[in-house]
Amino acid sequence: MKLKLHHINLCSTNVKAMDRFYRDVLTLGDEKPSELPPLNQDKSLVGDVSFVTDGAIQMHLTPKDVLNSFKSGQVVNPLERGHIAYRTDDIEAFMKHLDEQAVPYSDWGSDAVKGWHQVFFYDPDGNVIEVHQIVNK
């Protein structure tokens, strides 16, 4: 069995702000309508969702709803935080883009991973995002 990352789901108290962030700061775009999951609106389990993509991986931005497990009858206990990682071919240009967007970040250089230049920053809900470039091949 082969697995490939398909999407990342982030919950938010402000889906519109998250949508703007991922579109404006990370320059993600719209997914083809045929590739979107058919949501079951009859059960009101999800609410208004925003879908953005880098062309390969989808992000599903959903409203926070701590009572959703009662509605669905399913109980899930995910990790509270983690990070999302993206790879770039020009970390300097990306850091300039973050500066232009007034997004503060930590430039770890290659301190954590040898051969990767990493920067870390937060989205509007405090989720950690990493962007890195392979600098030693």
Task: Offer a quick outline of the entry.
This is VOC domain-containing protein. With 137 residues, this protein is an alpha/beta fold. It is built from three helices and seven strands.
CATH topology of the largest domain: 2,3-Dihydroxybiphenyl 1,2-Dioxygenase, domain 1
The percentage of residues in β strands lies in 25-35%
Distance between the termini: 29 Å
Helix content: 10-25%
Mean pLDDT: 80
Specify the CATH architecture of the largest domain. Roll
Given as residue ranges, the uncertain stretches (5+ residues, pLDDT < 50) are 76-82
Radius of gyration from CA coordinates:
17 Å
Rough outline: elongated
Main pleated-sheet profile: 4 strands, mixed
The CATH class of the largest domain:
Alpha Beta
Number of helices: 3
Number of domains: 2
Task: Tell me the number of strands.
Answer: 7
The multimeric state of the shown protein is: single chain
Protein structure class: alpha/beta
Domain VOC: 4-134
Protein name: VOC domain-containing protein
InterPro entries: Glyas_Bleomycin-R_OHBP_Dase (IPR029068), Glyas_Fos-R_dOase_dom (IPR004360), VOC_core (IPR037523)
List keywords for this structure.
137 residues, alpha/beta, 2,3-Dihydroxybiphenyl 1,2-Dioxygenase, domain 1, 4-stranded mixed β-sheet, 3-stranded mixed β-sheet, 7 strands, 28% strand, Glyas_Bleomycin-R_OHBP_Dase, VOC domain-containing protein, VOC_core, Glyas_Fos-R_dOase_dom
